[in-house]
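// run 5 | inverse folding | seed 20
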């Protein structure tokens, strides 16, 4: 059991008199419930979906390194939603080339880099 602290009590009384209100109980409640920001930040990022947003940004950034440079000139990722990566292609000729011959290779590279949970499918469209 904690021993009474006469100096702490005197300090508390002096502060209460100076403030004209005793905030000791409120300050104690705040101090007991406080958490370090480093502990709270991962929870908040997950709660607000920033971890997914960071993954999306990473996919956009790495795209140029994962796909053939000639394809990267004509196809650019535009978004990621529920496991589907959407890619805009600049012409129907390139869309046909990518969908017929390169889709599986691109999907495998992306899944290898980011996992099948993040990128389950890939959808190409003209845009």
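// decoded
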């Amino acid at each position: 059991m904690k021993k009474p602290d006469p100096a702490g009590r005197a300090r508390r009384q002096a502060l209460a008199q100076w403030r004209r209100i005793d905030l000791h109980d409120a300050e104690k409640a705040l101090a007991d419930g406080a958490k370090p920001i480093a502990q709270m930040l991962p929870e908040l990022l997950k709660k607000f979906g920033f971890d997914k947003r960071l993954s999306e940004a990473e996919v956009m950034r790495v795209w140029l390194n994962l796909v053939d440079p000639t394809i990267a000139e004509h196809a650019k990722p535009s978004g990621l939603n529920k496991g589907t990566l959407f890619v805009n292609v600049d012409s129907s000729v390139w869309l046909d080339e990518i969908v017929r011959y390169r889709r599986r290779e691109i999907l495998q590279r992306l899944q290898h880099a980011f996992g099948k949970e993040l990128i389950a499918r890939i959808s190409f469209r003209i845009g």
